[in-house]
Amino acid sequence: MEQLAETSGVSVRTISDMERGHIRAPQPRTLAALAAALGVSGDEQRRLEEEARALRMHAGAARPRRGELPRAVTDFVGRTRERDLIRAHAHGRGPTPVVLVHGQAGIGKTAFALRAAEELRDSYPDGCLHLDLRGVDPAPPAAGAVAAQLLRALEVSPRRIAGSDEERCSQLRAVLRDRQCLLVLDNAADEAQLRPLLPGVGPGMIVVTSRRLLAGLEGVLRIGLAPLEPAESAALLRAIAAQAADPAAAGDVAAVSRLCGHLPLALRIAGTRLANRSGWTVGHLVDRLADADRRLANLHAGDVGVAAAFALSHAQLSGEGRALFRRLAHVPGADFAAPLAAVLAGTDPDDVSDRLDELVEVGLLRHEGADRYRFHDLIRLYATERLRAEEPPGARAATRIRMARRLVATAIVAGRWFEPGSGPAPAAGDALVRPANRAEAAAWLRAEAENWLGALRILDESGEDRPAGAVPETLLGHAVRAPAAANRPGALTH
Question: Is the pLDDT of residue 274 over 90?
């Protein structure tokens, strides 16, 4: 039996289960591999295939098949590098390969995992199974309940399934040790739900999707999905809606892609709405999406919506995390650092780091370099909606002004390294940071340029006086425009 397993590529456990009658209707790939290894061919092989087909039809009529892969999208685009990573990780001896596909809501994790599973299906003759772990539900199933579902999907008799959660998880790992199958565990909640299910050694493979990074899991290949490239976004829209395939609409297609933030869920909803309205041009869709206040409402079709997907992640946050999330909508620029987040949260940078990590963990915020953070454009709109819904106008205005004054105060402190005669610096407590030298001042002014220039506009529009000792406008413009030579007086260094 071990020799047959080695020759055919079918696991010993599967062959044993077939011999003992636990598997009554082997899959065609399993049967073909065994037939080739045993030298069965011609009429004998055809007769064997017909008998197996009849058994499968009878088994299918007698009971539903559990764990079958859901229908994959037929217009999948992109992710070539990521798919190559999974294929390269799929083969080899030793520990069972586990791949974690993570990313924000709507980024296409499930579609990607199912596409990868379909491409690898022939490498796993014992089958490909899918199970939704319901990780964003208020009460996701525990590991023991998941193990029981998987054991039934692996055709273990209910009478043989262990009684306790710990025993079921151990039993699942033992079965997977001998099965050459691929499991897609979709939408995992956390490490506690997943860790007991993972086998140590075996010929199979496990692909997990989660909005969380699940940093506590060891020995896992992590593949983080980013928004699509512009060309991929356009290709997806063309595949969904005939109007987008018109070469004359290329400019509008690019605009829709940009307004959707190149997020696959948003693009798919936008393309579906366009395809279902034969009288629309792509320009009509651009007009609908151009209104930022209505964009999320327009990215909704049937029972699917971008805002609803974000809301599931938002529901995972603590109260402090939700407060920070909505107040970050005040930030004028595209990205920011922890000191600015601390001003909005009303705490110090050391304390706010945990809340920022919480937002990153559930996919509502992403790292931008070593110490900065950025919203996806559509998530920023969702944060703005939450801010308007959850905080009164007076509180919103007060937070916005407080943030703007602190940003401008810091710009003045940094600017004094280049314009020493521009006036007295504000009090030390007003600045977000206090640069120790010209290089630090230049780095802060450049990194936060969108934010402190936006803060100046906020103060001007609100009628607020700028802090005493404001940096001259000429320096503010110079700070952003000029990649000045190092050490030149009055200029920013690299």
Answer: yes
> Helices 349-361 and 319-327, interaxial angle, to 10°?
90
pTM: 0.81
Mapping DSSP onto H, E and C, the string for 115-145 reads HHHHHHHHHCCCCEEEEECCCCCCCCCCHHH
Residue with structure tokens 């490239």?
229
Helix (H, G, I), strand (E, B), or coil: what is residue 487?
coil
Cα–Cα distance, 77 to 95 (Å, whole number): 31
Q: For 242, which DSSP code? A: G
Count Cα neighbours of 118 within 13 Å in the Cβ-side half-sphere.
13
Q: Render the burial of 266-279: b for 16+ CB within 10 Å, e for the rest.
A: bbbbbbebbeeeee
Buried b (16+ CB within 10 A) or exposed e, 90-122: beeeeebbbbbbbbbbbbbbbbbbbbbbeebee
pLDDT band of 71, cuts 50, 70, 90: confident
Residue 270's contacts (CB-CB under 8 Å, 6 or more residues apart) are 237, 256, 260, 285, 289, 299
% of the chain beyond a pLDDT of 70? 86
Rounded CA gap, 322 and 343, in Å?
15
- Asked if residue 182 lies in contact with residue 117, where contact means CB atoms within 8 angstroms, the answer is yes
| Tokens standing for residue 298 | 């327009």
Q: Given phi > 0 = left and psi -120 to 50 = alpha, else beta, which region is 72?
A: beta
Helices (H), 23-164: 28-38, 42-62, 80-90, 109-120, 143-153
Which of 6-10, 50-54, 84-88 tops mean pLDDT? 84-88
Residue reference for tokens 């579906």: 272
pLDDT tens by residue, 59-70? 444 444 567 888
Angle, helix 12-20 to helix 165-178, in steps of 10 degrees: 100
Tens of pLDDT, residue by residue over 421-436, are 655 555 556 788 888 8
pLDDT tens across 319-330, in order?
A: 999 999 999 999
